[in-house]
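From the thread on structure requests for the teaching lab: each student submitted one protein with a one-line request. Submission from student K.M.:

"Model Lutropin-choriogonadotropic hormone receptor from Corythaixoides concolor, tokens only."
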Amino acid sequence: LILNTKNLLHIEDGAFRNLPRLKYLSICNTGIRQFPDLTQIFSLEAHFILELCDNLRMTTIPQNAFQGMNNESLTLKLYKNGFEDIHSHAFNGTKLNQLILKDNKNLRRIHNDALRGATGPDVLDISSTALESLPSYGLEAIQVLNATSSYSLKRLPPLDKFSSLLEAVLTYPSHCCAFRNLRTEKQNSLLSIFANFSKECESTMRKPTNEIFYRDDSYNTSLWSAEKNMYPFATDEENSPYSYSAIFDDSEMIGFDFEYDFCQPKILRCAPEPDAFNPCEDILGYSFLRVLIWFINILAIAGNFTVLLVLITSHYKLTVPRFLMCNLSFADFCMGLYLLLIATVDAQTSGQYYNHAIDWQTGSGCSTAGFFTVFASELSVYTLTVITVERWHTITYAMQLDRKLRLRHAVPIMLGGWVFSILIAVLPLLGVSSYMKVSICLPMDIETGLSQAYILLILVLNVVAFVVICACYIKIYIAVQNPELVAANKDTKVAKRMAVLIFTDFTCMAPISFFAISAAFKVPLITVTNSKILLVLFYPVNSCANPFLYAIFTKAFRRDFFLLMSKLGCCKSRAELYRMNYFSAYTSNCKNGSSATAPSKASQALLLLSA
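Reply posted by the TA:
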């Protein structure tokens, strides 16, 4: 034992030479800067333990650092040192039982060939290190992997590298998804053979005890079972008709932990288990959603981009309805971008999301997607409410020009909506709820009272907005239903248009609000997996429908669209027709003495609510 010797700065080569009876060597809490020469120990003991700990100035493990120590089983406890790098072939020439590298806070790299030339290890502990990846060679023998608090290890090597793994204690639940129901290669090849002996085993074997033998005080695992003492059929292997050695040799049975008999080989165990917010699935979960989301996001992006382009390039005066429609189209365009981002990442990580979950959910991508969706959703709901109130106000006070809503009024109103929407979208980035909770980057974190209040505030405001929209459209319908103002067929047309507008709002808001409010009170009525159906089929309904219902299906928009196309050399005859109809209607109004600035209530209703 070489302990607590801070003034010990160097151990000369050959200091440990020809020590055949050495079983245990501990060098801890010293000032050594260079890895000591341990290659001339030549211990003949069946199991040799080396402990290097708290040597903070020791930064690397060189090539062949342990070659020649022992030709038998070797346990290396290399923890709480200053290691930053482990070189190629560092463990060459060893038969590793356990390799403990835990608590090396600065250990960022193990060379891909660090374990080349070594046998084992059976146990690898890299907990509380800064490793970003595991070596690509030498993982096949590992039966126990401990990687707790290894927050930089966000990706695992290909699963076929862990052909003998039985127990894994990891940092992130998503990594356990990779190992779910994964059996070792030998287990898979032997399961069918074991099944043939099921009835014989059940009739002759008794249930073994759960006694566990721990080979090392510092390591507690169920792998080292006292097999010879636990199983009655192992006491006389040569004569027993059910002796596994009669069928398989010992090397073939490595990797099995028998609970009742060899008919029930144990599958891999992994912790921590995935939770309800992050089940073992891709971002979208269902295959049909993966197809639908592309159709929906393209529809939302193309529709809203077209509306924005036509309204911005139109040579007609920017009116309040046009201004509000521009804001609504931009909000719904952002929602399309969110869906596009989710669909793209899902396509890139399909089948291997467990290896990308941490980078995605904790990175800037998910935060950006979350900001887009909350900002777009709130700005869209706000703008829809303003548009509806403006329509009601215009029809109700059609004859009172002094009460008409003008652009100088609409600008500060929408500026308030932008500030509100940005604030609501930024709060999860500042710790009020979080976009990192789920793969679809919605603020579903309700662990704190503040986060819960945040979610409830959004939902209540959305419900209030829907009630206001419904109330306004009902009032509009009552106003235009007067037979003195509009003909019966027009009345029916207006009623249908309003019914469509209210239905799309209800379809978008109702299911989302219902399930979200129940979840906010910690009584979830739907799983995250099923909520993704709402995300794709209901959540973006308004973003897809709004550009058509509020713009594309209106005569004014079609006029602006064909006029824009005529500037590009297309649809000139159609554009000329719209231009002639516009001037003809304007001339007719002038001859009849009607005022262009003070339309009747009936004409306002037809203009605002009929195509």
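TA comment: The mean pLDDT is 77. The radius of gyration is 36 Å.
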